[in-house]
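In this section we walk through a basic example: taking a raw amino acid sequence and producing a predicted 3D structure, encoded as discrete structure tokens. The instruction is simple. Fold the sequence below.
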Amino acid sequence: MCGAGGIIFFQSSLAQRLRTAPATVGTRLQVEFFRDRFAFFAAGILPRAAMARAVAWRRIALKAERRPMVKPLPAIFFGHGNPMNAVSVNAYTEAWRRIGEELPRPKAILSISAHWFVSGTSVTAVDAPRTIHDFGGFPRELYDVQYPARGAPGVARRVREVLAPLPVKLDTSWGLDHGTWSVLRHVYPDADVPVIQLSIDETQPPAYHFEIGRRLAPLRDEGIFVLGSGNLVHNLHTYAWGRHTQEPYDWAVTFETRVRELMQSCEFQPLVEYESLGRDAVLSVPTPDHYLPLLYILGAWREGDAIAFPVEGIDGGSISMLAVSIG
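The resulting token sequence is shown next.
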């Protein structure tokens, strides 16, 4: 039999949680729970002191109920393209800037970048992540770029928690690679939002990455901006490096169009099994690293989420700059 002390302790714990919890649907359910328990106390089953505590708890519950519901943050996949976009002003980077201006301010950013493609799943857990210049042959100005965003070890631990029981290592050696900072330099140019990165396990199939995205979805309710950075179409062998303007290849246009149609109809399984989409997929995704970040974002989709494409275009004939926003 549950004694009064047990009920009081349990409700005290819930009351403390309610003081700090965001006003989500879960909080509203806690409010209803408190009302039920208040009726229990008011019936005279417990003594006066317990009733006084119940009145205090009810005030907390009603105050929380009056707070506005917190809307989940969107999750966005960015086509980051040429590293020089980090220091360029063009149609793509201007669109990234507008996204940053329109987004609700996040508590932190969780980035899944094509350029941390390693064995195993790790999340950066350092206070001051270094800016990684993971490329070669570019102008000096690109190597001079620093993106001094703070890290968020506490958020990293929360990521590990939501992904459990999958093994996730807290990493202190990686930082922010150009898949992350080349975009964020425009989205949040002041580097004033903490950033962590989650690695992509190169040993796992696409379905694994989609599932991780699904497990990350609750973070959207906690003020975490889940960001994927890669390219839907990414064929460097056919890219027009510094040459004349190259019209998009037919196979790139066809594949991007097909993927957009599947996303708009919320048919994600063919996108997980993208290798079965034929020759256009083979040419558009010769390696999985730049495609897989999209699956994390699609995995974070929930019933009722809108899907939009705030950035469009194909650069150099074979790099899709498409951005995909859910929520």
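Looking at the output, two observations stand out. The chain has two domains: 4-66, 75-326. Confidence is low (pLDDT under 50) at residues 1-46, 60-69. In the next section we compare this with other chains.
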